[in-house]
Every structure is written in structure tokens, then in C-alpha cells.
Amino acid sequence: MAKILVTGGTGHLGRDLVPTLIKSGHGVRLLARKAQPDMAVEWAIGDLATGDGLEDALLGIHTVVHAATLSPIAKRGMRLVDFFSSPSDVDVDGTRQLLAASQRAGIAHFIFVSIVGLEGSTLPYSRVKLAGERLVRESSLSWSVIRATPFYYLLAKMLGGLTWLPVWPLPTSASNPVDTRDVATYIAQAVDDGKRGMRPEIGGPDMMPFSTFGRRYRDALGLRRLVVPLPVSRRISLAMGLVETAEHLGKRHWTDWLSEHERRT
Ligand SMILES: NC(=O)c1ccc[n+]([C@@H]2O[C@H](COP(=O)([O-])OP(=O)(O)OC[C@H]3O[C@@H](n4cnc5c(N)ncnc54)[C@H](OP(=O)(O)O)[C@@H]3O)[C@@H](O)[C@H]2O)c1
Question: Which of 6, 31, 39, 177 is 20 to 30 A away from residue 166, measured at CA?
Fold first, then answer.
């Protein structure tokens, strides 16, 4: 079985992806800035922002799954500054360095994890992510791009930031966020299926107004808040990163994720 280098293996998706790849019989090496004591895998210490450790990390590797990112929004929730700028040293410069090192190492397949609807979003993080994706698509490596809708954990983080408000005005935009376990399964299939290029996008099985996701979150937490559905145009929905796709659907529902992750108050 092909040996795989995973970047971002310590992140939300990565922590589901690494065991899924190992279970499907692959040897896995993780490129990370720091080894995590609770993860029993082969570590390659390196940093995408500086390029340190990339050459050694790629020795003997067949496939790269590039799932690292630097998203301040995912780390600490949305702030005003996120509407004006987002760092590019990992997602653009780091991707460029990883692609160049992968070319030198003769990597057979470079898989890039990306996001649905990047072209329509005006968020600086989306523009950075799109620039990174374009580098992959323009590279001479054999590549795949897998775009996913926002992950459930991010949705929970954003809605969690509203809990102090008695009224939640939420857009009615059609959305289908997804469970990282479903995305991990989909990526593991892409490692082995021999296909290349832009893959069908993946989203979750619940296609609902964003405001309904908010209601279900509120109910799962047992909160008394008024959700006010706010109709917005498709253009504004896309600009805010509220996206949907029906190309490939995961299995795990939002309410299942909530009952696994959120403690009732
Ligand atoms: N979150 C979403 O809703 C969403 C939706 C669709 C697609 N995606 C894409 O899915 C992928 C994973 O997202 P995620 O939400 O799971 O990310 P995440 O939880 O924020 O994890 C990011 C990962 O990148 C690593 N990383 C950051 N800076 C690095 C550096 N300088 N060198 C090496 N590694 C570095 C982090 O390592 P540390 O643990 O050391 O910080 C972590 O493992 C990304 O490509 C993202 O764009 C995300």
C-alpha cells in the first residue's frame, strides 16, 4: 500500500483522516510542527510557513494529502479583522513550497483539501485558500482537489459565539455543512481510486436553511433564544461562505453530531 504524507493531521479533519487512512491499510506519516503524544503515528517535524523539514518528510512518500491550513476564524471564531485580512504564509507560501518539494521528490499524487464556493466568497481567508488551490491546479504534479462545505465543528463554534444574544438573526441561505468523519472517508477513497483532478464536492446530508441549523443547535443546547430567519440573496450568501453542494453527500446528520458533542445546559 502507498505511503502517505498528511499535513494538518493534528487538526479537526486530520484527527479523523489519519485513523481512516491507517484502517484502510496505508502507511501514514504526519508533517507537523510538534508531535502529539496521544497520536501513535510516524511524525515528520516541519513547518509549512518556513519550509523546514519538507524534504525529509517526503522521503519514500507516494501520495501527499495536504490538509493543513491557518484559519484564524476556525481557531478562535470570527472577529472584525477577519473581514480585512488573513495570513497567507501557510496556505499560499506553504503550499507553494510543499508543491516544489513534492515535485523534487517525485510524488505520484497530491491531494488538496479545499472549500466549496471559494470563487463567490469575499472573505480574505477564502481568497487565500483559493490562491493555494490555484497553485495546486496549475502544478505539473498529478493532483486531486477535494472541496467540502463547512465542517460541523466550525458551525458549532460560530453559533456558540451567539449564545450571549437573546435574539439570533440568521440567514435562510440553503446550507449543508458536513461531518469531518465523512470527509475523511471520502478522502481515503480518493487515495485509492486512481482518479485525478477536481473531485465531486462533498457536503452533509441535511440541506436546510442556515437558520434551521441554528434552531437545531439552540434546541440541542436547551437554550431559550429567538431565531429570526433573515432572507439574503444568493450573492450575499456565497460572499459570507454559506454554501451548499449536492455532488456527494456524507451520512452523518447535524443533530447526531450535536448529540455527540454538545452537553445540554
Ligand atoms: N473548517 C472547515 O469548515 C473546512 C471546510 C472545508 C474545507 N476545509 C479545509 O480542510 C482542511 C482542514 O481544516 P480543519 O478545519 O480541520 O483545520 P484545523 O483544525 O484548523 O487544523 C489545521 C491544521 O494545520 C496545521 N498547521 C497550521 N499551521 C501549520 C504550519 N505552519 N506547518 C504545518 N502545519 C500547520 C495545524 O497544526 P497545529 O495543530 O500545529 O496547529 C493543524 O493540524 C483545510 O485545508 C481547510 O481549508 C475546512
Answer: 177
How far, in Å, from the CA of 66 to the mean position of ligand 1? 9
Burial of 40 (0-12, 13-18, 19+ CB in 10 A): exposed
Residue 263 has pLDDT above 80, yes or no: no
Contacting residues for 57 by C-beta, under 8 A, at least 6 apart:
5, 29, 31, 44, 46
Mean pLDDT for all residues in the chain: 95
**Is 102's C-beta closer than 6 angstroms to any atom of ligand 1?**
no
Ligand 1 centre to CA of 14 (Å) is 8
Of 17, 69, 89, which is best to mutate to test ligand 1, by the most ligand atoms within 8 angstroms of its C-beta?
Answer: 69
Cα 19 to averaged position of ligand 1 atoms, centre (Å): 16
- Please report which residue ranges of the chain form alpha helices under DSSP H: 12-23, 54-57, 72-76, 95-105, 124-138, 152-160, 180-192, 210-221, 234-239, 254-261
* DSSP strand pairing (63-66 vs 143-148): unpaired
- Compute the average pLDDT of residues 156-169: 95
Report whether residue 244 contacts ligand 1, using a CB cutoff of 6 Å. Answer: no
pLDDT digits (tens, 9 = 90+) for 37-80: 888 899 999 999 999 999 999 999 999 999 999 999 888 888 88
Its CATH architecture, for the domain 3-261, is 3-Layer(aba) Sandwich (3.40)
pTM beyond 0.85: the answer is yes
DSSP, collapsed to helix, strand or coil, labels residue 66 as: strand
Q: How far is the CA of 137 from the centre of ligand 1 (A)?
A: 19
Phi/psi at 212 (5° precision): -70, -35
